Amino acid sequence: MNRPSKTRALERLRKVLEAIPGLEKYSEGDRSSTPEFDKWHRDTKVAIGKIFGEESRHVNEFASISFFSGNISWSRSSNYEIHTKLRRSDLEKASTLLESMIEEVEDYWEDDPAPPQCYGSRYFGGSVPHTGRAN
Fold first, then answer.
1. Is residue 78 part of a domain?
2. Can you tell me the distance from the alpha carbon of 60 to that of 56, in angstroms, rounded to the nearest whole number?
3. What pLDDT score does 57 carry?
4. What is the pLDDT of residue 30?
5. How many structural domains does the chain have?
6. Are the CB atoms for 23 and 67 separated by under 8 Å?
7. What's the rounded Cα separation, in Å, for the pair 41 and 4?
8. Mean of per-residue pLDDT scores for the chain
9. Could you report the per-residue pLDDT of 53-95, keeping only the tens digit for each?
């Protein structure tokens, strides 16, 4: 598997994690049918798969979060409140899982290699290390 660099993996995971508060506004409606949620859910699945591998436990852990099934009918306010809490709970689970993945990358992945040093410039003909002074 050709996984992304540590920096890129952290950027992607943080991006999908930071989008979660914007999805909470849909907790009173059917979040599972909004384009914003659909895009976030797909972006998150793709990011986790690209970072950790499509067959990884990370993908399976994310897939195990139900994110509420829109096929349930809620007629009483008490059931509606339970329903809303369940949906918020699903986002909290996703948030916690993504935070754990970020910590895993930070703690256990090798740091990105240092960028190559500049050896030469047009002034020096590109053949000697550039020291900032003439030889």
1. yes
2. 7
3. 98
4. 56
5. 1
6. no
7. 20
8. 80
9. 999 999 999 999 987 655 455 455 555 555 556 577 889 999 9
Q: Are 51 and 4 in contact (CB under 8 A)?
A: yes
Domain of residue 81: give its range.
6-108
CA-based radius of gyration for the chain: 22
Per-residue tokens: 78: 């008490």
What's the N-to-C CA distance of the chain in angstroms?
A: 46
Residues 33 and 44 sit within 8 Å (Cβ to Cβ): no
Residue with tokens 């306010």: 77
How would residue 2 be classed by pLDDT, with cut points 50, 70 and 90? confident
Locate all alpha helices (DSSP H) within the chain, ordered by sequence: 6-18, 20-23, 35-52, 57-63, 77-108
Q: Is residue 130 part of a domain?
A: no
Angle between helical axes of 6-18 and 77-108 (0-180°, round to 10):
170
pTM score = 0.73
- Is 121 a domain residue? no
Q: Is 98 domain-assigned?
A: yes
| pLDDT confidence of residue 44 | 98
